[in-house]
Amino acid sequence: MTERDAIHNANQREPRLGGHKRIGLPGSEPSLGAQAAVVHMMELLDHEDSAIRHRALFGLAQLGSEAAVSGLLTVVRDPRYNRRFRVRAAKALTHFDRSPDVLKQLLSIAIIDISDDVRRAVAEAIAALDNPLLGDLLAGWMRRSNEATRLAAMNVLGQSRHEWAFPLLIEALRDGSRDIRRLAAIALGEFGDVRAVDPLLSAFGDQDAGIRHEAYLALTKIGSRRAVEPLIAQLADPATRFYAIAALGYLGDSRAVEPLMWLYESDGGRLRPAIAGALGRIGDASAVDLLIDNLFDPDEIVRHASATALGQIGDERAIGPLIALLRQDQDEFVRDRVRDALLELGSEAVAEAASALLSDEDRQTRSDAVWVLGQLGDHRAIEALTEFLKSPVEYIRRSAAVTLAEMGAVQALPAMIDALEYYYRDRSNAFEIAAAIGSLGEPAIDPLLLALTDENMQMRRLAASSLGHIADDRVVGPLLRATHDAHWLVREAAVGGLLGRQEQRVLVTALHALGDERDRVRQQAVLLLGQFLPQGADQRARILDALGERLKADESVDVRREAARSLGYIGVVEAIPLLVAALDDEGGIVVDRVCDAAANALERIGTPEALAALADWQDWQTE
Question: Model-level pTM?
């Protein structure tokens, strides 16, 4: 019997329950043919070809006989096999075999195996099983005196969301190990059961601040109103007060407002920012007066927290005090938050109050007012924002252009085009301004087409980039012509501007650009081909051939890597052999090699053939 015959026979055996036949059921004794196949596949597990080893393992998993279980356990336990191979064997066992002995052995591997990856993967696989027997087995491990052993068992327990795990997690919350208590608190939060509220509240008294923090986070995830009164009681204890304040804020129950306000006024101390934050999240208007009073506190953190809370509550009584704070506060951290709070209030009253500041004698106050009005879409900001386009400060120019575009201020287009010309050397901000101009759509086309003929290369480049943001057929022809510009930076921007367009002439241009002398132009062409939707088999073949050639032979690692990604986006089976061939290409930095891009593309395609090739490559990588 050949390797292929043995594996084929295993895959053609009798039907399996749930995708795999379970052992230990009447009539499940293996046939002589199955036994022979198991013996042969066990031999193939040591074959020099990783593809044959992988398929033999798959065949064992599908057989589901007692002999196959023994073989799979041998693979899982044997550190001579690479970790991916051992993990696959363990997952196969959990799929079709849940007998006590197998679970016991798998749990032992999840706790004491020398490989971190194997322990983690096996733990994840068995924790997903809804089998009370696992609870009994884990309880035994959790009673061991060795902390490292208990911690490893806790890593299994913490991943389970089945009922048998809940009492063990509650018990683990009282373990002598801080690491185990911390993991138990995290797991109880993920479990989401209201029965955990009281034990988690008790953990607020833990001596370790990390445990108290995790208990608080767990309570916020559970979100039970049952926790509100006990948390209010915790406000009296200085040791647990901070976490009680935070938890009450996230629970958002108005019963906590009065106790929090009392604590703020009587004994808030350094906790006042936390209390203000909790009051803001609860959102009860009865806290507005207290928060307004504290907008002018000497502590900038208190002012910031109070402004934040007032924005969250959304009561218009806060508008006047917030405007007053904006005019006088010198702390930029606080002013930023005041502006955000005014936007959250977002009413006509805010726009009126902000417009009154446009004539303020303080330059920063005027700028803040313009920013607020612009974000609110108020036309009174347009003139001032247009002036800001001339600012020597980069981020002010960028913010002004983006805000004007968001407002649809077509009347500011000439000034925005001028800003491109004046500040084209400021590359990152100039491209953001170009994108903002493009977002204005059809009105921007004519000024940009004129800029595309400018003698200044940078202006042509920015115009091409901006036109790329406009979904209008009139821009396609000029962009196609710009792909032949004398300067490669303009060609790069023009090819990039054609992304998303599906005309035949765009495809012809992309194929031509693959021969450009500059790798960044070729890279844009590869991207363009990757998003192109071919019409018919001939067009698809042209695209695949072109990308395959770039993947195989381009001198630039970036182009080869982008070609692999584009083949993955296209996602057809004809791309698989091209990508498999690229799995040997280790060009690029360690974290971003061509072979890694090819592997990701195979995973994206996701057919059995692609995934098998990917698995073989991954096995080879770990050997």
Answer: 0.66
